[in-house]
């Protein structure tokens, strides 16, 4: 007779397949097998185990046996066993006694078998909940002497152990695994956050959005449950006995109340306390009809199921673990898993990755107890694993998440009084964390992968995002302070540590973004062989010339590294420009912002710099029709040129018999043999309470506009369009929290094209049934089908940035109507929630700026060397400690002296100069926060400025103030306002070669259209509208000497005027940026009375809003006061 009892041993093969998958998600346990396998530290141990018999537990059991133990096993809950997992383990010869749906008597029998299955009985116990431990104490006390100890998994079992220790009834040494940081703060919080709703939805298919949910208890389990329910749109009420937990819940935004008073309000009840009688008869009687009641605490005593059974008129079993009780008052109660663990009774429990951390602690506890030959662990006492082991568990999981740890220097370690290699947490630390997500953003859940954390110096706003391995894994699971691999490292906080980053902009997107941020200015690259290889491919395709734009097929301002083709072929890393390669010439076309940088980077023997905007210099489009021979064939990737541009270019080329030749395979890609792969990071949901509007509402508005234009649908090809429309964010592209995708919104359906591996259940649930998910690679194929099915006269709307490839896939120009993107217009008008997020994020950002400039001034005045790159890194450090920080919004421009004249310079860490106290210092930087995006420029002189510095700075300031104070009628464009920013400069014969303002997205692209302020015709196409956000950034640059720019973000707001001529209404600006402007650089004699009043009032506002955030940083606070006290 086999020494096991399971439901069906034939399920073993199925179970083995799932075990193999789980092993890939349980890196900690696999690392322990590798590290300790040869030592066999559990040899001779006979472990009796009682823990949910799941696939994840199967990996734990096989880890214990791999380390030398003999194991017997039973489940710790009658409904939690996964029968295929039990069968797979039984088939290996391990005595397993577990099946789903045991009776209470069968459960007791199974526990008994774990003790008697081995002839000599157990000498170790691994328990979850305490049933096995106390079975041995009560019925088999003769075994206690030879049992070396017990490790306990869960909160309830730990409570019982401590109670027994206090009473003197505990007869074994015990290790409290539950309260290890990498167990309770991950299993209890993150695990329940995912598995609770999984259980509820599998059981009921209920729509959670809009429902009221009561979560009883706000410990770690309750925190995870509350956050999960709120993330699905529930209004969550918390009940608590603990004043600290209650305060946490309240400060996290939850209503905290008494069950008796709110039971009648809720649709869903979840108990998480581990205590008895949480929901009793009087609560059932007060509940709504068909209220859903469930428990995720260990035992079934939290819900008075006995009362329900005794007082119900009838009960109907809907399906396994789902019962509908009808009360005498006619109301029905839906009880899940008979009041036992809903996540295991109605679903499959926690994800494997979470359980890996928990089970590593169990394994280490078993090793510690079994190898204690010196009496370190006393009988009757309960112990915790040392922090070294806790951090070892966290460390074992970081590689799976692509996490990189910063190393403490000896100086830093001495300052913190910590060992260089840890442990970093004191023995008293239990990782009590805030209840709410910092979004995670911060989980904002976002990307779980590719997180890196930088060590921050002691300062206010410091967080636990340090080198601590435990905190780091917690940050990764929660989404805090995102860091990204590849180009995303550079985009979000680590860009100054790299020297080869290049970014670029498509011709179509560049037309709207006049202030694209550049990249780290690298040295010259010899591109001779690259261009030669390209010409060979051109010859094969029979083309006279080949055009390489800066952008990708989504018209992205910051393409992924894999799409930086123009940067690769030219060696020029500026963010705007296009290349044209002919049989005997190679030309780079860019504008005045990049003349200096391009001149430094292009190989002159290969490339000719075409300085667009200068007399007699054509655009690249003009060059094709005016400079190339007639009957030329110009090759191009059709996905990289807009259909609108292609139409105009084709019309001009046709006049001379030339033509545009779409080439399916990008020729630069074929030359670029080591081209990086395109990112595909996890996508996360931006909750409606942060976005201010639901995705459904946005889609409804979009469809209304489609109908108004008598069209059949709309293609969203830009990444920020898709992210905004669906309230999703990602990390595929540097600086911008977007992901690779397309969307097709038709009148009858909505299609989202994205790689499925980037989507978790949270995202899929948020999208709901309204959105059909399709593979990213099927986008053009589907467009072809949609175009073929269009009726006569029916058209699909595409934006001006949509590529020629999109138009051709739909069937050509007759099937599309090119319009300014409807979504671009929609998202440019911010709602009240977004605007308030902008205000709060700019106040926080102002605090980090004050900390940085105060620190920098102190360093320079002390004679210390700070390079441009080190300065940028320091500013990033201060920002990283801020709540809701998600990363930088563009590469920081930290420039001293002559480098400030390079409008979009960014320092190369390997060669950049030190910031010179005797030179102008220009710092242009920005951050992404969950609630807003910032972009700010300040110009400082930390020594004695020259008269020409002061005069130019004052003229720039006058232009800045003129824009800020402007009042203008509705319908006015930024093209018309631009003259206000330049008027004062013009009086001195000065000017600047960039736009004055660009639109800014809400936790989206730092540059967005359609609005802008500037001299280019595109800025006359869109009027400035109420609730748009735009930058105000005039400047002046003395080539080879210095540069000055002053930038604030502003909101377009209604103006209060004594009259309203023409009944149009008038608009003005509300400034968002909160950072002082250096008064010692101002010539007060040039300012008007109104200018002086503006500057003084601005500083009073900055001090009032930012000052309270600097209470703990006296240096920054005193610096802020000093700057704001200076009057003109």
Automatic annotation (TrEMBL):
It is an enzyme of class 3 (hydrolase). It catalyses: S-adenosyl-L-homocysteine + H2O = L-homocysteine + adenosine. GO terms for cellular component: cytoplasm. Its EC number is 3.13.2.1. Residues 188-349 form the S-adenosyl-L-homocysteine hydrolase NAD binding domain. Pathway: Amino-acid biosynthesis; L-homocysteine biosynthesis; L-homocysteine from S-adenosyl-L-homocysteine: step 1/1. GO terms for biological process: one-carbon metabolic process. Its cofactor is Mn(2+); NAD(+). Binds 1 NAD(+) per subunit. GO terms for molecular function: adenosylhomocysteinase activity; metal ion binding; metalloaminopeptidase activity. Keywords: Cytoplasm, Hydrolase, Manganese, Metal-binding, NAD, One-carbon metabolism. The keyword Manganese applies. Residues 498-512 have a biased composition (Low complexity). Residues 495-520 are annotated as: Disordered. PANTHER family: XAA-PRO AMINOPEPTIDASE 1. Belongs to the adenosylhomocysteinase family. This is Adenosylhomocysteinase. The lineage of its organism: Eukaryota, Fungi, Dikarya, Basidiomycota, Ustilaginomycotina.
